[in-house]
Design a protein that fits this description.
By secondary structure, the chain is mostly helical. It is about 65% helix and about 0% strand. It starts with 20 loop residues before the first helix and ends with a strand.
């Protein structure tokens, strides 16, 4: 059972500002300007937000494949013609969501503060905590990408797999850095990066389970950090309870 731990001491500059729905919609508008016929951001962004929020809600409750354009029209308050001004098919809408999630993960995880990158332990724990907070901030987006992946068409399923592999590579690179600098054991399992991803997904896929147990995001993040570090720190190194940082025992 996960036990609550004290909140970790913050690393200077390590707090990441999570994107807003408006920012995501502006990004989608720029990325898909050839598909979206509405040119004025002041009009397009709020309507796109209504469409995406309705699509994610309907999909997460009943499945993306079961969602009809009529359902989406009613939920978003836009006519069918209004919807077609933003996408020409459900597959295009799917691509918009998946591409934004994949790009968001890459942008956020590839931009750690310099104070973090100088230390493999700090970098690894930052990746874990930042990923968890990103999925918490945009829960419907990540739940959709995970739960619907098995039903995606082949090309979109590949997008989802590539996004997962991208996340895994961030952890692979940091663990390799820690091994090279002597912070992590040379025999650290090469499977560890792949095993971290399910621990991160557990938070947003089964979040209700942890809410019932009174587990907070902070305590879950600390627990995952501790589990991961225990799998790669050298013998004789224990974890400081407040900061999840190595202390020579």
């Amino acid at each position: 059972m996960i036990k609550a731990s004290p909140t970790p001491d913050p690393v200077p500059g390590a707090i990441v500002a999570m994107p807003t729905i408006e920012e995501l919609c502006r990004s989608i508008l720029a990325r898909h300007h050839d598909t979206i016929s509405v040119r004025k951001p002041a009009v397009a962004v709020p309507r796109l937000a209504r469409i995406l929020e309705a699509a994610l809600d309907l999909s997460n409750r009943g499945g993306f494949q079961a969602m009809s354009l009529r359902d989406l029209s009613q939920a978003s308050g836009l006519s069918a013609g209004g919807l077609y001004a933003y996408f020409d098919s459900k597959t295009t809408l799917l691509k918009m969501i998946l591409a934004e999630v994949a790009d968001l993960v890459q942008r956020v995880l590839s931009s750690p503060p310099e104070a973090v990158t100088q230390d493999a332990v700090a970098h690894l724990t930052w990746l874990i905590d930042t990923h968890l907070r990103l999925t918490e901030a945009l829960l419907p987006w990540f739940t959709f990408a995970f739960m619907e992946a098995k039903n995606f068409p082949p090309a979109e399923r590949r997008m989802a797999v590539d996004s997962e592999m991208l996340t895994e590579r961030f952890f692979t690179d940091v663990i390799a850095q820690g091994i090279a600098t002597g912070q992590f054991r040379p025999e650290t399992s090469p499977l560890l990066p792949a095993l971290i991803k399910p621990l991160l997904q557990e938070w947003y896929v089964k979040r209700a389970k942890y809410r019932r147990r009174g587990i907070t995001l902070d305590s879950y993040s600390l627990e995952v950090q501790g589990v991961v570090l225990s799998a790669c720190l050298p013998d004789g190194v224990v974890l400081a309870p407040r900061s999840i940082r190595p202390v020579i025992g």
